[in-house]
Amino acid sequence: MDVGDQLCEAAKNGDAGKVKALIESGADVSHFDGEGLTPLMHAAKHGHADVVKKLLEAGAPWNALSPSNLSAGDFAMDAGHQEAFDILLNAGIQAELVLGTIARKDNKIGDCNGDYLEDRVSFSEDKLMDAESKAVMMAWEKPLMEAHAKAVCSGGGHILNIGFGMGLVDTAIQQYAPASHTIVEAHPEVYERMIRTGWAEKDNVKIIFGRWQDVLPQLELYDGIFFDTYGEYYEDLREFHQYLPALLKPEGIYSFFNGLCGGNGLGEDDWQC
Ligand SMILES: C[S@@+](CC[C@H](N)C(=O)[O-])C[C@H]1O[C@@H](n2cnc3c(N)ncnc32)[C@H](O)[C@@H]1O
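Output (structure tokens, whole complex):
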């Protein structure tokens, strides 16, 4: 068995000592075994949180995808391994924040969202993918979206959501029957799908097509606001926060799950909340 496969096996068995020794002897933490899984995916799948942590510290890619397009986070979530999932979630958040900062320093802001919005996206039952097959949104995020919806709808009234994606948060928001439910979406194909699936016909729903940056004058004052875009940087989120006082009522509730830059090579964007 080659060293990479040995690392996968040790990760699968939760053998932290062996994982450590193999890493120290130079085993490749990005290795894909015969099943197309990385050591991190094995550890996540079996809920070995300590091994997940060790592998991440050694530079294992948290966003690598299996042949069926599942990340280590998906494996942990599917198997109900909360601790391993939380560690992966935090690793994703940190990586995105660091890359956003680097990109900002390199003056690359602005390229990112533009590329994504001009490219094709594709929908499958459990994913929305961009043109590079990076996940814009995944079905496993549903419980997180439901929690956001519960928070922003807790005061009732008028709700604004920025970024429709798979409509997970909007579906959850609808369950609270808000007085009005405004959705801003910038991608033409996502927008087209919203129309096709009847979102524009819902009594309390108002869809605004366009980048939130461009449609700000059409926005009003809301009791609850949720923000979750894709292909943007921390700088965009910061900019949105500057407008918040003009969009949110004094007692209103705001929550976000920002998209940062999905075009930065890390793939799945939605590790932030
Ligand atoms: C991660 S998804 C949102 C997922 C959504 N919260 C859900 O529950 O399914 C991000 C969405 O934001 C949209 N988006 C990206 N940039 C945007 C922008 N500047 N303004 C408005 N929407 C944007 C994307 O097209 C995508 O549909």
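The chain has two domains: 3-63+71-93, 139-256.
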